[in-house]
Amino acid sequence: MKRLAYIDWMRGLACVLMFQTHCYDSWMSPEAKKSSSLIGWSRLGGTLPAPLFIFLAGVSFALVTEKLRAKGIARNAIARHTIWRGAEILGMGLLFRVQEFALGYPWSPWTDLLRVDVLNILGLSMMAMGVLCWAAGDGDAAEARVRTLVAGIFAAVIAAMATPPLWTTHRPKFLPWPLESYINGVHIFKEPQPWLFPLFPWSAFAFAGLAVGFFLFSDFARRREGLAFAALGGAGIATCYLSILFDSSPVQLYAVYDYWHSNPNFLLLRCGILLMILFLVYAWCRWGLAQKGFSPIIQLGNTSLLVYWVHIEFVYGRFSILPKGQCSALKATAGLITIFLAMLGLSLARTTWKKWRVRALPKNPAATAAPAGF
Residue 36: what pLDDT? Predict the structure, then answer.
């Protein structure tokens, strides 16, 4: 199996799930949404893309850090490189908001410029992971790997456990709303909004992915790769069971219990689902048909940031290819197929250009191993 094919396949899966959620949400009329069960299944699938993207950013971050360490690159240089990459993603997130505001003008409110979206939190999470890897990365590579794995789990737990009070009883209301929004997603509203992407709890997915990535570089995982992935799948099942068990427990740690939005138990469930998906995708890539010839899913995964950025404007934006909120389920499905094919074509054009560019430029070990944050 080509190394990391399972990461690209999972990222491509997230792209497809994202496409269908956005297309049906944007284009289907209210009547079509009420009369069709399709929208319910679409929204269920739509709960996966953001956790997948952020989790995989953590996995990729760990794998890239290990590769750079193996090449003998100094800890400080690795930190500078990875933190700067996170800053680039954050900058892209801010630029994306400017683009959306400009294309939506004069209908877009100026507050949309400061909305916390997935790219913003992905960039900040990558910067935080860079700091964590630097702090835990001194000394022997094997020891540094174990320290960083444990630190990643610890950081994920802290982010998850801190979320309920930061959303309810201990909100940092002293901060201006653009800053508080990065903590709990309050934006311009009175209460935190579950459809936004604040650090708490979303960074927990990145730190969980970081821990998984370092586990996959352990001596055990290298020797028994299939067994290691099976263990992760089993851990995912156990994690889901623990989430249900904790949810049914009479002991409550928080004054406000909101399982579906801010409680660590729901995040635990989603992490378990991610681990199970990781195992299933690995098995599909290793023993299934995922790599038999050309894979459009892997292709999309190679350029997930690009297709995320572009498809938004053709689904939700001014250049929407179908009238928003006016389509039947069938017409929206036709639009979804069109978006999928168009983004696949764009992805192929991007990789073709990138291959040509790589041939024309001198190789840089750090640059070629840049973490794919999305």
Answer: 83
CA distance 137 to 151: 11
Q: Are 61 and 209 spatial neighbours (Cβ–Cβ below 8 Å)?
A: yes
C-alpha angle with apex 117: 323 to 347, nearest 5 degrees?
A: 65
pLDDT of residue 363: 61
What pLDDT is recorded for position 84? 96
Using a 10 angstrom Cβ sphere, with 0-12 exposed, 13-18 middle and 19 or more buried, the burial of residue 245 is exposed
Compute the CA torsion angle 62, 67, 68, 70 (nearest 10 deg).
Answer: 120
**CA 113 to CA 360: how far, in whole Å?**
37
Domains of the chain: total: 1
Q: For residue 110, is it within any domain?
A: yes
Q: What is the pLDDT of residues 61-89, one digit of tens each?
A: 999 999 998 888 889 999 999 999 999 99
What CA–CA distance (Å, rounded) separates 318 from 192? Answer: 28
Q: How confident is the model at residue 368 (pLDDT cuts 50, 70, 90)?
A: very low
HSE-CB at 225 with a 13 A cutoff on CA atoms is: 13
pLDDT of 362 strictly over 70: no
Tokens of 312: 């938004």
What is the domain extent for residue 145?
A: 5-368
Number of C-beta neighbours around residue 327 at 10 A: 20
What is the rounded end-to-end Cα distance, in angstroms, of the chain? Answer: 22
Q: Please check whether residue 219 lies inside any domain of the structure.
A: yes
Quote the DSSP letter at residue 210: H
Residue 189 located in a structural domain: yes
| Residue 103, CA distances (Å) to 94, 96, 108 in order | 14, 11, 8
Dihedral of the alpha carbons of 115, 116, 117, 122, in degrees to the nearest 10: 150
Say if 373 falls within a structural domain.
no
Q: How far apart are CA 5 and CA 12, in angstroms?
A: 10
pLDDT score, position 358 = 78
Task: Please determine, for residue 268, whether its predicted confidence score (pLDDT) is greater than 60.
Answer: yes
